[in-house]
Amino acid sequence: MSTSRRNQMAGRKTLPKNTRRKKKRGRKMLRIIMIPLMILLLFLLFKSCIQKKNQYADVDATQPEMDVQLLDVNPYSRPGTTIDHVNGIVVHYTANPGSTAQDNRDYFNGLKDSHETSASSNFVIGLEGEIIQCIPTWEMAYASNDRNADTISIECCHPDENGKFTDATYRSLVQLTAWLCAKYDLTADQVIRHYDVTGKICPKYFVEDEDAWAEFRRNVQDALEKQ
After folding, report:
1. Which helix (H) or strand (E) holds 93?
2. EC class of this enzyme (predicted)?
């Protein structure tokens, strides 16, 4: 052994046995503590996933409560044109963050006087899940361009610019959509976005997050299967 190697060995300190035992016990205790913590973390993660999956398990296809406030018949928002056959449900968003269902219903009705544009929807869902019916389901609304004549439109309020609906709005949307599908013998595949008709970014959140849109349709289908 070289002189330098012997010097290195001589300079190395050997820990007392009791210190080594304490360190060994410390590592053992750490493992004992960490294993239950990991199990608890995995359990909480699993529970969170299950709760998220079943968050809308209680929503069915029964008729939801709604406030019927039909628009006045006029050329700008309620033409009074009968729909011969309903072939789909179209979901929209208001693109007016923070506005209420009442605000949007009143805007549609006011078009008879302002003549600002032609626009309306069969239903508007508010930030707290309230539903206002503006046009009968057998009448055409001015909402979905080329699909006005064979679809029912649902306009949804949203709190901010990203367009994501509140939980209350979302729940009402699932139930209302499922009820309309049951009423007109439609499937969740016949529920579409305004985007699917024209390419317009509407409803924004469901266009930008395809997974969220797919999940919504699954929620509608699950509600339909509870009939």
Report:
1. strand 88-93
2. hydrolase
Q: What is the pLDDT of residues 115-131, one digit of tens each?
A: 999 999 999 999 999 99
Nearest to 141 by CA among 85, 195, 82, 196: 82
Candidates 3.40.30.10, 1.20.1740.10, 3.40.80.10, 3.60.20.10; CATH matching 67-224: 3.40.80.10
Note whether 178 and 224 are within 8 A (CB). yes
Specify whether the CB–CB gap between 42 and 49 falls below 8 A. no
Cβ contacts of 24 within 8 Å, gap of 6 or more? none
pTM over 0.85: no
**For position 57, what pLDDT does the model report?**
84
